[in-house]
Write a structure and sequence with these properties.
2 copies of one chain form a homodimer. Chain A folds into 2 domains: 122 residues, PurM-like, N-terminal domain (60s Ribosomal Protein L30, Chain: A), CATH 3.30.1330; 161 residues, PurM-like C-terminal domain (Phosphoribosyl-aminoimidazole Synthetase, Chain A, domain 2, Alpha-Beta Complex), CATH 3.90.650. The first copy, chain A, has a 7-stranded mixed β-sheet with strand order 8-10-7-11-9-12-13. Chain A is an alpha+beta fold. The first copy, chain A, is built from 11 helices and 13 strands. The interface between A and B is large, with 110 and 110 residues.
């Protein structure tokens, strides 16, 4: 420091964090309420008569993704995990905040790819970046996102409102991601499970990049009695819904939708059904609904291009039972947890 | 896995993450829209005619706090950093989401203290926990918070709306935290700076635990032309406000409010003025306002118990100049950045 009035005034240059934000993330902040990421906070005007739905979920390198995963899939996965929660609640996305902690090894090319993938998803899901926080960390890279959506006042689809007699419906296919991560960790499994190259690629892709069911959000909103995002495994998440609703579920294992790849793996190693039903990262939605609504739900789901399968019923009691040949499967580890 | 119907149904027990949330964090989720943290998301009903103000900021062990800091100060600091942003924007807190990444060394006693401090602050600032995400990490402990507030529609106090001729006012005292962290790192400085025990304790406390100026938020909302939270140092943050507003600021260094401890340190080592003006973690607010509003602003600030000091003026041009004896100080590192 010196008393030298010929030098630049304080702060005429911005910090490296500011430059990084301006270069990579400000272009994603398309909502006027994000103020181009130059303010302390964002401001959004909620739609009249709507509630704001908010959720947060994050990823840590080595815990939720492989450190050498393509950077665009890391940012997309972090956003899509949160979008999946909004979809399960019947909410339309509004935007998100993102806090990232970057190890020093991260370079411009990595950041550019990370931001590009994130920007593409922000546009695809109509969920703009509203603000963020960027730090360096001596630890692994992490991305923490808080996402916001809207539902008509009082309309958020809860976990706790399933009713005895409701149908249990699940979107997409279950267990692909749990198999995909195993393939990533042990390449020998592909031969053991007799998977084609295409099947291997499909299972790995399901782990790498979730396909959240936001297209179905409005259908969930109008028909579901209760719903939950399947992120910690179908068995564990359905059990959470049952606990919250003080009901039981009886699931017919043969009706749980499996991809062709998952069916091939299960044919080669039947015990894999536990991994598929209890593994995480499906990012499907389990919906309960009154039986008389099932036909309309199916029709509307088909219209928005989301496959749905009825897999069982809600009953009195507690716990989610997965029945095969009249007997309940018992799982060594019912719910997947990164924790 | 076994086909054994005598075992418990899947998911009758909750995961360790669920137990941790139920034990430590659900008691903090006092807002009915948090659903006791048992759902995928929270739902809040915004007040009619209000905008939602949202911000995110986080802390990482070894970057933003010392790993052996008391756990209750870590959670409080993470929340208060965000509350400070809301205060600077004139927003009333509504609630927050929290994502925490915990190393395996964290035990129940640590978590209990962390949650207790957070709960006390959530009540003190009327800012309840609305939801969260809990993960284990192989890296340092981190806490990422997204906080929400409300302002009347269109009323968020921006950085970009300072006007030529406005007064520049700052709350509290500047630079204590920058000195406090230096004392934490080098105990010999206390003697060099001729600080009493009480002065040392006060400076360290300012670093350990911010005192955000939320009591002033409503006064800022009604009087400020622009405002910014002082978290990266007065010089750098005021420069950001000037850039955003396309104006300059001329600050009278001798009018920058310093604590007795900071004045003692500056008397012993005059060059410390740079550290005080450019150091981070003040969590004060810089406000610009029309001169005719200054008297009312002062009176209302006094009524809510927040000290405010007029330190300079907004002028045409660019950059924030800190003037002493008619000359502008030049700083080696104008803006503090954890990044």
């Amino acid at each position: 420091m010196a008393d030298d009035s010929t030098q630049k005034p304080a702060g005429a240059d911005s910090s490296s964090e500011d430059r990084l934000i301006a270069r990579y993330f400000a272009p994603l902040a398309s909502d006027p309420g994000a103020f181009g990421l130059i303010d302390d906070a964002a401001a959004i005007t909620p739609s009249a008569g709507c509630d704001l739905v908010m959720t947060t979920d994050g990823v840590i390198a080595g815990v939720h993704f492989f450190p050498d995963d393509p950077p665009d899939t890391i940012s997309r996965k972090a956003l899509r995990m949160n979008l999946s929660d909004l979809a399960a609640k019947g909410a339309r996305p509004i935007g998100f905040l993102m806090a990232i902690a970057l190890p020093s090894a991260v370079d411009d090319a990595w950041l550019a790819a990370f931001a590009q993938g994130l920007g593409e998803d922000a546009r695809r899901y109509d969920c703009p970046l509203l603000g963020g926080d960027t730090d360096h960390t001596p630890g692994p890279l992490s991305v923490s996102i808080a996402a916001f959506g809207e539902v008509p006042h009082g309309g958020m689809v809860r976990r706790s409102s399933a009713r005895v007699g409701d149908c249990v419906v699940v979107t997409g296919t279950i267990g692909d991601s749990a198999l995909g991560v195993r393939l990533r960790r042990d390449a020998d499994l592909a031969a053991k499970w007799q998977l084609t190259e295409a099947m291997q690629a499909q299972l790995k892709q399901r782990y790498l990049l979730p396909e959240p069911r936001n297209a179905l959000a409005d259908v969930v909103l109008h028909h579901a009695s209760a719903a939950i995002d399947v992120s910690d495994g179908l068995a564990g998440d359905l059990a959470k819904l049952c606990r919250a609703s003080a009901v039981a579920a009886a699931i017919d294992v043969v009706r749980v939708p499996l991809s062709e790849a998952a069916r091939a793996a299960a044919a080669a190693e039947p015990a894999l059904i536990e991994a598929m039903l209890t593994g995480g990262d499906d990012y499907e939605i389990v919906v309960t609904l009154a039986p008389e609504k099932l036909q309309a739900f199916r029709a509307e789901a088909e219209r928005v291009g989301v496959a749905v399968s009825e897999i069982g019923r809600i009953a009195a009691g507690e716990g989610a039972r997965f029945l095969r040949g009249g007997k309940a499967l018992a799982f060594a580890r019912p719910s997947y947890s990164h924790f």
